[in-house]
Each structure stands twice: as C-alpha cells, then as structure tokens.
Hints:
The chain is α/β, with parallel strands linked by helices. The chain contains 17 helices and eleven strands.
Amino acid sequence: MRQFLYCSLLLFVLSWSSGEAKVTIEDIHLDKLEYISLIKRSGNYPLIQIYLMKYRPTTILFSSMLLVFLSIGCRFDKKMESAENQMRDATSIDREYSPEAIILGFFPPDGTRNPTALSQINTVKGPIDISELGVSLTHEHIMSNYGKEINKTSNYDSVQLFNQVIPYLKNLKSLGVNSIFDCTTEYFGRRVDLLKRISEATDIQIITNTGFYGAADDRYIPEFAYGASAKAISDLWIDEFKNGIQGTDIKPGFIKLAFDDGKPPSDIDKKLFEAGILTHLNTGLTLAVHTGSNREALESQMQLLKDNDIHPSAWIWTHANKFKDDIVLLDLAAKGAWISLDGVNQSNISEYIRRLNLFKQKKLLHKILLSHDGNGFPSGDPIRGFEVIFKGLIPEMLTNGFTEDDIHQILVRNPKEAFQMRIRKNDD
Length: 428
Ligand SMILES: [Zn+2]
C-alpha cells in the first residue's frame, strides 16, 4: 500500500509538471473567461483538467503505461519484501510487533509467539542458521526400535550402536553429507542424548523431531493418546519445541507423523494429525507425514489442512515414492506440497531417474526431497544404508542430463525451504 501511494504521488507530480510546462491558454485556444470557469470547475487542479481536455494521446498513453509499470513494480517489490520479512529474525519482529508480522503469520491466532528465530533450525547441538544445513538427507533413521515393543526411552547398547553408526556417518560426511533429518519418533526409539553424541563425534548435523509414529498398526502410539484430546497431545509437542525434549535443551526441527499403509485413517491417526496441525500453528515446524501409497490418508490430510487454512507447503508427503500415480504427485507438488522420494536404493535408480525427469519436465524439481529411509542401527541389526544417492543416483543423474544445479536444488535448496520454520497459511 505504501508503495502504491508513492506511485500515485509520482504520477500526480509528473502529470502536474508536464501539464504546467506544456499547456498554456494560447496552446489550447481558450479565452480567459473559459479558463477562469475551468479553474472554478476543477478546483485546485486546472492544469490536469486542461491536460486531459486537450486530448494529448501520446502523453496520456505514456502516463498510463507508466502507471501500469509502476503497479507491476510495486507488486513485485511487495512480494520481495514479504519474502525478506519471512527470512528476518522473528525476535526482531517481536520487538517491532508490527501489524505486518501478524499478517505474515508470525503470531498464531491464539496469540502465542514463535520464540525461535525464523532463519534458524534446531539441531541436536542447538539452533543453526538454516543456510548452514548444506547437503541434507531428509528422511533417515540413525537408529530405531522398529519391530520391537513400544518403549519411551529405548535402551540401546550404546557401545555397539556407536561402533556401528559413527564410522558409517563419518564416511557419509566424506561423501558430502552435512545434515540428516532423523525420523525416529518418541516411543519408536528416539534418543536425543545419543543423537547429540553421534553428531558431536561425526560433525554431521542431526535434526530430530516431535510427534508420534502412527504406522505399524499403531504399535508405537502411547496408550494415553487414545484418551487425550488433540490439543493435549499438541501441548506436549509444543512443550518439546519450547523447553526441550526429555529434560534436555534439545529441540525438534520438524513434526513427524505416520499413517498406516493400506487402510482408511483411524480416529487416532486423524487425531494425531490434528495435534500436528495445532503444533504447526504454534511453532511453524513442518509436518513430515508417512503417507506412502495411502490415498485415503492423503485425502484426509489435505482436507484437514484446508479446513485449518494451512498451505500444502507446510506438509511433506513422506514415502511418496510408493504412490504409483504420477499425476497425483505432480498435482500436489504444483499446489506446493513437498514430495519426499525417500526410498532410494541400488535397485530402483532407473525408476528414480524416470520420475525425476518427469518432475524436471514439469518444472517441479523444486518440490522434491530425496532420501533413503536408511537406518544406522535398526533394532540393533546391521545398517540399512544411506549412501546410494551419492554413489549411485547422482552419477546416473549426471549422465541423464541433470545439471549440478538440479542436484544442488534437490539436496540443498529444497530441504532448506521445506524445513524453514514458518507458519504457512493459505493466504501468505
Ligand atoms: Zn522412515
């Protein structure tokens, strides 16, 4: 609006000066009486009136074009300004507490404020600037208890775990990996204290999550969640974001949820997703949701996002590689959702090349996330690898017409944008 006023003022001054400089009574053959009556009729702006009456088509055309260009410029400026604002430190916006911050969604409807700077992301070693994420694997498990009984704290043999995981991650680091998003939730084997020690030993940034894992026949959902409200569950997750996880100062960098494969979403699945929505609205954390090929889970989530006026870019379609209908993937990507093709292994490289080509043709590579869904210590078993992207897929991409910039887009720019803490409302 401010720029629009500047434009209008500029146009007015231009009109005024051009009229004043070029239009005289002689020019337009008015006699003095006509001129005086014209001044009376047009108040304080007689020269503009004269200017318009004289039908100077070229000048009017020039002014109109100027107005159009300035309007386009203003709209562009506004967009740039909005993007810059979203990148600004939330704490400084807090201090200013400007109406623009509310419009941009920094403050959720309930009046709470996002305490973490928007340009930062929480790692297990503390917040970093999001630009420091670098090459990121967005869906891996450093370790998990998958297959074992539900366990809030997860008792790993830490010596065995470190002996297995640390050399592997050090090797990944040498392949260029800077950051790993660990998708093991609480009750599923999440141990942030161990993640922190592994991160310190390997120099790989690890981002942990808040949320519950609702796949595997709901086996890893804690009993109390069935009787609790979505709000009560989200309060626990928001508390982890604000105060740290399990007595540590380690905070989550995203929300992890899961729907069971091959069955309609259950009440508990939907409730956990609603709790995820409330958590997003209070923290700006992105929702990474194991959805796979479950079309009903997909539709249910899209409806709940819509009902809560949340933009699809707040949501990552985890295990989207399992969904066979390319049209649906492309459609969701075009709407802004993140498509996580997170099952790369040596046997499916050609299928990944085919899909990535399709997204490239449709100019949607900027919505793709790549990962392996690997596991460094799956219930104490041998490593399920997470290095094929670097050893197999990327070389194959380069021989199939993908550029270094395409790869940088998928492994660096996309994670940075997908996990940027921001409350993403539909009207942003
Ligand atoms: Zn996983």
